[in-house]
Structure formats: structure tokens, C-alpha cells
Amino acid sequence: MTHEQTEPPLVNSDHRVRVARQRRERMRRRLMDSVVATRVGSPTDGPPTVEAVVAHAGVSKATFYKYFTSVDDAIGVLGTEMAAEMVELLKVVLAGPSSPLFRMTTSLQMFLIRSVRDPLWGEFVARTDVLSGDNEVRHGLEEHIKGAKDAGDLDFDNLEAAIVLAVGGLIQGMRHTAQHEDSTKPELIEAVVLLILRALGAKAETARELVRESAAFIRHAAPDTIATTRGTSSKRVSA
What we know:
Largest sheet: none
Structural class: mainly alpha
Shape: elongated
Number of strands: 0
Number of domains: 2
Distance between the termini: 80 Å
CATH architecture of the largest domain: Orthogonal Bundle
CATH class of the largest domain: Mainly Alpha
Number of helices: 10
């Protein structure tokens, strides 16, 4: 009497794949959390070493390199995730009708405010190419800048140059607030945004009024919400 061999149910195979995927994601998250934790405790300015990260995570270097090519690679992934969550937050906060220039002004201020509240968040986001690469952050800024020019609120000749200026000012502003204790004053954030607007051709009084209105809007619409994006629970990073 012969017995026919039957293939294991597909559901068992799917379950194993799902469990393996979840295990990989947990390890990936564990390693990224260790990058954050070791950066917070690092006495020097710069990313932690692979040795420090794997010691904190309790894994081998071989395990780390299965997921990331370097600590900078892991920081890049973290920065990309953090920036993406901020973009989603901005979509909620700016869901109502508003001008492109107001949306741009508010976006710039909220990125800078988040960097003040969590300097390590600002360091990770500004350290990567996420703000200047081909992604939703850049596309959003481009849309706001172009819309503001079309509306007559900005005056410049080259869109790409305008984007470079806005992104560069934002990145440097985030890095500065992440590294300097005395840069937490709201006046500095508003001054940085004001200079970006003026450099893009906004009229002086219009830019000043817009920055004030945007700051008031953020205080009213997102005083707590801005702290709900993925944070690093960091203290201020010394220069």
C-alpha cells in the first residue's frame, strides 16, 4: 500500500515567512535604538562606533552588518524615518486652506522647533541627505516655493537655486540648534526663516508678518503634536 506525499499547507509557509520578517524587523529596530542610545551617551561629537552599538544591543558585528553597511547607514535610515514622520505631521497640521508661502514658512519653523526640542533628532535628520535628496521633503518645499512664486509672494529667477537656498538654510539651522545651547530661543528660529524668505524675494514686512502668524499658528495648532513624532529622548548635544 502506497502513501501519497502531500505538501505542507501554504498557510504554514506564510506563517514562517511572516515570523521571519517580524524577527528581522525587531532586530533592525533594536540596532537602530542602540545607535540612538549610544549616541546620547557619547562624550564626543559624532556617530558612535560599531563596537559601541553592538555591545549595547548585545549582538555581534556580523549581525549588525547583515542590516547596515555602517553606523552612518543606520543613522541615515533613522533620519529618513524621522523626517517622513514629520512630513505626515505637517500634512495633518496644514490640512486646512492656506497659501503656499504660509505652508512653507510653517514647515520650516516646525522642523527647526523639533530640532530645538530634540537636538539629536535634528542632528540625525540634518546629517542625512533626506532634506536634499529626491524625496517628499524636497518635493514639498519645491511645491510650496513654486506656488508662492506663481502667486507673486516670492521673486526669484531660478527655481532650483531657490530650493537649494531653502534646503541649505534649513539644514544649517537644524545643525546649529542641535549643537548650541544658546540657540533655543524662538527669536533665532524666526530670524532664520525670515532670512530664507527674504532671500527668496519676499517683501520685508510681508515676511515678518508671515513668520509671526506662522509662529502663533504653531503655538495654537501643534504645541503638543510636534512632540509626537519619533523622538530620540536625547538631551542637548554639546558642540
